[in-house]
Design goal:
It is found in: Cell membrane. By secondary structure, the chain is of the alpha/beta class. It has 14 helices and ten strands. The protein has three domains: about 40 residues; about 150 residues, D-Maltodextrin-Binding Protein, domain 2 (3-Layer(aba) Sandwich), CATH 3.40.190; about 100 residues, D-Maltodextrin-Binding Protein, domain 2, CATH 3.40.190. It is globular, with a radius of gyration of 29 Å. The N terminus is likely disordered.
């Protein structure tokens, strides 16, 4: 009988130990879940969909800022990639969801036609950079050419000297569309002048080559741009206002982006950068640094901006 009681006692103790162990595991699991839930309950920590595609065009002022945004989103916890296309494809991607967001929407003028076409599917999130401008630029040594009207009036025989050619950028760019629809007809330039399609890099190279030879040249240009730090340039006056008022640069996303990736949306609400800062990266890129490396250098050198962008994270 005593052996029976002893055996039952051992069984009882064993069962009690098993129950306590089970309860302990359950508490640990609950604590772990509570920790995860606490992180998730903080709106700043809700990543949502972690794969994010940022769109950009090929112009360094936009690509440099886009790489900064990419690196910061990755620091938050996202898997970010960049899809570089022309501007039209950029907005199509935003509309159909193949691109999640951009940080280089020049509005209301430069990208105005694209915004009007797709705005019902899109949302402006924040102003990234204020007061960026478009225009025709010439080297400062072209002292007699100060206005677009000087081109129209063929001042100092400038048309013949330039073979009646204005050096432009890629045909899909908003500035090129504006040149064709407003600037050239507004000044009657389409009667004699040709707008040469090229690319941002080709335009910059042509400008650099002309300045090296101190030859005349007229190019489509914008701020911010590294050439204003490298060369003594002037933007021609636009008395008829064909280029419109200076744009602001916005971050833009599809209308479901906030719900889809809330922490990324919050970051973009806080992401802004001055023209002079963008130009700092552009100079590094022009001198041979990769775009992502230039963006990382900028972030490392500006901890105050990084702190501002990540406030609340």
């Amino acid at each position: 009988m005593w052996k029976t009681y002893r055996f039952l006692g051992i069984i009882f103790i064993f069962l009690v130990c098993m129950m306590l162990a089970a309860c302990g595991d359950g508490n640990d699991g609950n604590q772990e879940n509570e920790g995860n839930n606490a992180a998730d309950s903080n709106g700043n920590k809700e990543l949502g969909e972690k794969s994010i595609t940022l769109g950009t065009d090929s112009y360094v002022s936009n690509t440099s800022n886009t790489y900064v945004a990419k690196l910061m989103l990755e620091e938050i916890g996202y898997d970010a990639e960049i899809n570089q296309t022309d501007v039209g494809v950029e907005y199509t991607g935003l509309s159909d969801g193949s691109t999640d967001a951009i940080v280089g929407a020049w509005l209301p003028t430069t990208h105005g036609s694209y915004w009007e076409e797709y705005k019902d599917d899109l949302e402006k999130i924040n102003t990234v950079t204020e007061k960026v401008e478009l225009g025709l630029a010439v080297p400062a040594y072209m002292e007699d050419i100060n206005s677009i009207e000087d081109l129209a009036n063929n001042t100092n025989n400038i048309g013949k000297k330039l073979e009646w050619t204005i050096t432009g950028i890629s045909p899909g760019a908003g500035e090129m569309k504006l040149m064709e629809s407003e600037v050239m007809p507004g000044y009657g330039l389409n009667e004699n002048w040709e707008l040469l399609e090229s690319s941002g890099a080709a335009m910059s190279a042509a400008l650099s080559d002309a300045i090296d030879q101190e030859e005349p040249i007229v190019v489509t240009l914008w701020t911010p741009h590294w050439t204003f730090n490298e060369f003594d340039l002037k933007i021609l006056d636009d008395p008829k206002g064909t280029f419109g008022e200076p744009d602001d640069v916005f971050s833009v996303a599809g209308k479901d982006f906030k719900e889809q990736s809330p922490a990324a949306y919050k970051f973009l609400e806080q992401f802004s950068i001055e023209k002079v800062d963008t130009q700092e990266m552009m100079l590094d890129i022009k001198e041979g640094m990769g775009e992502e490396a230039a963006a990382q250098k900028f972030i490392d050198n500006h901890p105050d901006l990084k702190e501002k962008w990540l406030e609340g994270f």
